[in-house]
Amino acid sequence: MSELVVRDLHRSFGGVQAVGGVSFTLRSGDLLALIGPNGAGKSTCFNLLNGQLRPDSGSVRLDGTELVGLPPRRIWALGVGRTFQITATFASMTVVENVQMVLLSRARRLFGLWRPAAAQFREPALTLLGQVGMAAQADRPCGVLAYGDLKRVELAMALASEPAVLLMDEPTAGMAPAERLTLMALTAGLVRERNLAVLFTEHDMDVVFGHATRVLVLDRGRLIAEGSPDEIRADPRVQSVYLGGEA
Amino acid sequence: MQHRRQTISLLAKAAAITAILAAGLAGGLAGGLPAAAAETGPVRVGEINSYTGLPAFTIPYRQGWQLAVEEVNAKGGVLGGRKLEVISRDDAGKPDDAVRVAQELVTNEKVDLLAGTYFSHIGLAVADFAARNKVPFVAAEPLTDAITWAQGNRYTFRLRPSTYMQAAMLVEEAAKLPAKRWATVAPNYEYGQSAVAWFKQLLKEKRPDVEFVAEQWPAQGKLEAGPTVQALAAATPEAIFNVTFGADLAKLVREGETRGLFRNRKVVSLLTGEPDYLEPMKDEAPEGWIVTGYPWEQIDTPVHKAFVAAYAARFKDQPKQGSLVGYTTMKAIAAAIDKAGSTDREKVVDALSGLTLDSPVGPVTFRASDHQSTMGAFVGTTTVKDGRGTMKDWRYADGTAYLPSDEAARKLRPAE
Amino acid sequence: MSFLLVQALSGLATAATLFLVSSGLTIVFGVTRIVNFAHGSFYMVGAYAGWSLIERFGGTAAGFWGSVAAAAIAVGCLGAAMEIGLLRRLYRSPELFQLLGTFGVVLVVQDLAAWGWGSEDLLGRRAPGLKGSIDILGQSFPLYDLVLIGLGPLVLALLWALFNRTRWGTLVRAATQDREMASALGVDPARLFTGVLFLGGALAGLGGALQVPREAVTLQMDMAIVVEAFVVVVVGGMGSLTGAFLASLLIGQLQAFGILVFPQITLVLVFLFMAVVLVLRPHGLLGRAEEAPPTAPAAVTVPLAAGRNAGWWALALLAAMAALPLAVGDYALILLTETVILALFAASLHLLIGLGGLVSFGHAAWFGLGAYGAALLVRHLGAPMPLALAGAPLLAGAGALVAGWFCVRRSGLYFAMLTLAFAQIAWSVAFQWYAVTGGDNGILGVWPSPWAAGKAAYYWLTLALCGGALWLLRRAAFAPFGYALRAGRDSGLRAESVGIDVRRFQWMAFVLAGAAAGLAGGLYAFAKGSVFPTLLAVPLSVDALVMVLMGGIQTVAGPLAGAAAFHLLESEVMSLTDWWRLALGLVIVALVLLFPRGIVGFVAGLRGRA
């Protein structure tokens, strides 16, 4: 059982408050969606959680350990994995090598100067790729993959570190609707299977209401609602600032 | 499929590398074809200089030695009928390239001896190579004292008067000046540093009352004229010793004139009287500086006049300092080979040791003690005549008078 | 007091020239992201063209200033021509290739200028009406310098107006911020870039022509100014005009007053200053973070091919090379020895560039440090060759350990310039510390032990050591270490988020590359018998870059082929003609245009298509 406790996060840029007082708790088994209109502060929120940005104040604790102030790689090592909104894989490597890199990093074997990397952790990497349906493309260079496939590779890379908490920044952005639902179904399955705690942002409301166990609504840097998908759908404030605004 | 592709690409890589190596080797081998010099073939001299690095000085030098080679061959060559042949190479201004080229000349071109170089560090590199490979080397132009003293060796000889000798010639004049407060400006490398060091030491020996009140060390080729001139003026020296040359000198002169640095101040300046440096300044050449140099148009000994005439006829050009050095270098080599009576390297070295020849400016001897030639320089005062810089009130300072005794010189060299 | 004032004014005059030249460089970089080595050549051509025109027409004030303007415009046209003929074809190439292409132009222009204007220094006429000096508090100050001092801010103001008050300028600024956006605005980027190169060239030409009344025009002007202009641009912040202005002012004053305090410091002052600024401010004084490091080899998406049989091919090549002494003569062996050494040198740089995406402009520092390490051990401690050879990579590695710590904290061009600064500092120490390093006269008598003194023996030794080092480098490239390095290059963000400490890997790679280069340098010292400061100098760093790029950065074998091709080409051409720079420059330009993936990439591509 893991628990990510976020308390009163604040961050402003040049006097403009991007995130102002966000608090929530994420537990194993959660598939928590963070939604909000463009510019609501979702990405900033994400970057505060994974260490890419430092909050002005507030705390993020993973099972009691303070994450604020740690560099991203330390936060990762403590069990917080992530995927990126705009895919970022190692383009000069093959699909399986991308996953192997994560496995090597987790095993602290990266400083090896002798044994070829390609021969290490290949089997476990292939297994992971099998789980996200990418085994067939394992030896293709990542630089030539289709967008949807890259997202799957990202997922495999995130899972490779066996995280307790997974942060997914728009995991389905840029994908076709059918593909989105497949990927989220896959993610949901993995969450159950591995008892992960997942926080994801998403624009597609079908994805959100179809898969999230709970939903957080962010507007102008503040959480305005939190609840089950049904509660959020029914919340008039959410409808006015978000759903209403977009309709 | 994937696997085959990789193999093919590796094959291709290996092929590319081999092809390149083969091409290069073919070049190297082809160079080796001129077979070993037969007893009757030409005597081959390997010549190295910074032709692309410093063309302004090395091209006149090349014309000088070309003239000498032609004269020698017109008179029947050396060793009673063998032609003198020069294989010339560029060193790109880099000592490591010079060493490689020297090797190429010795092993592929089978040259009997080496000559040339302008920069001191390149001269030293080739001298070291010569000593190791036991090849005679006549260093033409490098000025550093090290080449005949601290780093001297059995196989290396140097023609041009060294930094020490030229500094000593100028000190003789500087000591006569009333000035007591001196400033120095010199390029920031060995040549500039040792020129200033010798000048200070020798002048203090003659005039214990002088003091040196300022020194400037601009980077060679990057003199910041305004600030440097101002800094010199601020020290209010009574006289200035200058070692800068070339483009730096032109900047210094221009800026110094504009800012009045030279007003009521004597300037003593190394090499500035050489036409190579004086002529580009045209009518802005400094007036009244005490310099070493080469007033070629005023030297009216028959032998020198003949040299100037031959040079002008051959190249439609007037000689520079480099022309004189190049010409005399090759004449000295021809004389040494004739004296040795063979191209045997050890015999040529023995012949060069103590060799005396008549240069256009007078007799020159390569001293047996330190392998430095006694070629001198002209000491005089700069002036502007007919819109161009020249020297007046000059005299020929024979190098013999400005060298330490044989005894003292031997002590400066490493033990053999 | 009056002296200090006049000294400050002198510094301002220096600053004006620096600003003119570096403003062009920074504008060109800002828009095209091209690091234009040929900018110094523009300056030199401006000076030569200015000299010719001023000699002819410069008798009157109108003629003089007209000549200066005409020279600037002519050089601007040259810049535009270079954009159309060369750079335009390179925008899609890796940025390093653009750099290499402009370097080819430098070589070509050097020889063409020598051919056109002769090799003698040319001292031009002074500006009519501005020959004298005026009295400032009892000190003479040249009138012409006063004009220059005024010209700096004037040009800054004009450029500001151009970029902020005209449509063209607005478009250029848009393109500076976002190339894609500019083309989305319906602007033909090609024409915009031609215009920018014209402007950059004209500014450099103006700076050059304005020097005619101050100093002699020489063939060495190009390299002297371009390095300083780079320093100004980097200190000011790449692409920032006001930054360049500020940096020019600071450097001008620094030089004016630096020589008062410590006259010997002239060689390193600006580089020390740059190093300090970059250590304190990652993007220079007024620069912004780069959206993408200009040197990231974006085109490199092809995985490094390990290939099961690579080892066998390498062994076969090694065996063939080991057998060569039986077939070839002494000189060929020396060429081969040097080639093998340079191959290791190039491969060590490739480790940084090809795997780490770190372009070093000062890699010769480690080669030279290794050479000096070996030579110093021999000279001062009388060490035998094996000990000296062991010391070479250690000293170079130690140097790289210190410099690398600073360098890897910067990226892209700032990284490159910081490496250059360290190399310059190392060079000037070797150049000036006469008691220890022998200054520019170097250290002589560094010959191999008797058992390795034969040409063949030394060749075999070199082959064994370099082959071993290359093998280790190759293992490292395919080991997790090399992958981690590539991961950091491909996506630093992703690498950090999967636990890879990118900087640490870059630092380690820097040390490893430095040590390998140091071993190459040590071997080179014994091959030559002497070491000189030229082994640490900028030209050798550039040579190394050329070798790596010639071979192609995508493959491990590339630098080896590049080193072989470059060295043999240079040594052969050099003995054939005095115009070897022209020939080499043309070869480089052709290579960049025709084989943008390097020799090995090209050959592999041919085979792949067949």
UniProtKB/TrEMBL annotation, chain A:
Signal peptide: none annotated. Pfam families: ABC_tran, BCA_ABC_TP_C. SMART domains: AAA (SM00382). Keywords: ATP-binding, Nucleotide-binding, Transport. It comes from Azospirillum picis. CDD domains: ABC_Mj1267_LivG_branched (cd03219). Gene3D superfamilies: P-loop containing nucleotide triphosphate hydrolases (3.40.50.300). Residues 4-245 form the ABC transporter domain. One of its GO terms (molecular function) is ATP binding. This is Branched-chain amino acid transport system ATP-binding protein. It comes from the Bacteria. The keyword Cytoplasm does not apply.
Automatic annotation (TrEMBL), chain B:
The keyword Signal applies. Residues 42-382 form the Leucine-binding protein domain. It comes from the Bacteria. Keywords: Amino-acid transport, Signal, Transport. Pfam families: Peripla_BP_6. Residues 1-37 form the signal peptide. Belongs to the leucine-binding protein family. This is Branched-chain amino acid transport system substrate-binding protein. It comes from Azospirillum picis.
UniProtKB/TrEMBL annotation, chain C:
It holds the Pfam family BPD_transp_2. InterPro entries: ABC_transp_permease, BCAA_transport_permease, LivM-like. This is Branched-chain amino acid transport system permease protein. Belongs to the binding-protein-dependent transport system permease family. LivHM subfamily. It is a multi-pass membrane protein. It comes from the Bacteria. It is found in: Cell membrane. Signal peptide: none annotated.
